[in-house]
Fold this protein.
Amino acid sequence: MKISYNAPTTLSLTLVTAVVLALSSTLLPGLTQLWFSTPAPFHPSQIQDWIKLFTHPIGHSGLDHFVSNFGFILLLGPILELSYGSVTLLIMMLVTAVVTGALNVLLFPSTVLLGASGIVFMMILLASITNFEKGQIPLTFILVLVLFLGKELWNGIANRDQISQFAHIIGGLVGSFFGFLRPHRQVSAT
């Protein structure tokens, strides 16, 4: 029996993020702030600020932050890669990153955003809508939308913490958009 690299996009993101976290926590303490968090404020003339709009999901504040995000990503990512394909899922992740990053710098210019929670919420909503038929909205999608995004709206209003509920909500909306926009690949049963 051998171990397979069954979900290349999911596993590669996980490995890269784990390496960045390890380096940020030990040898290169400024790495996350330098390359893997949104700029605050954003300077359009700085190429690094543009790059960080895509790379901020790789930066995490610590091991708990990493585990809470990648517990979901490692659970949902392989299923979504099977349904949509590795390249398509990578594109969805990049779009989610840039949308959450750009909206964060536009609407909250002094707030730094880091972590993959926008991608997590994209995956949660995308997974709940993966098996829908044209002209129908799955009840599971509606319930997940109410539970997860409703909780984030409530937390955004009731709590003043360091968690960006905004990124969670935007990630979930991007996932919903992808779910309705792009039909999943048919996987043949053997």
User: Anything to note?
Assistant: The mean pLDDT is 88.
